[in-house]
Amino acid sequence: MTNAAESAVRDAEIALDVEGTIFDLDTFAVHDGPGIRLAVYLKGCPLACAWCHSPESQRREPQLVFAQERCVLCGGCVAVCPQGVHVLEGGEHHVEFALCRACGQCASVCVTGAVSIKGYLVTAQEIVDRARRMIPFFRHSGGGITLTGGEVTLQSDFSEAVLAGCRALGVHTAIETCGASTWPTLERLARHTDLILYDLKLMDDEAHRRWTGVSNRQILENARRLAESGYQVQVRVPLIPGITDTDENIGAVFAFMCKMGLHSVTLLPYNESAGAKYEWLGQEYGLTGERQPDQALQSWAQQARALGIQAEIG
Question: Which domains does the chain show, CATH number per domain?
Answer without folding.
Answer: 3-58+120-313 (3.20.20.70), 63-117 (3.30.70.20)
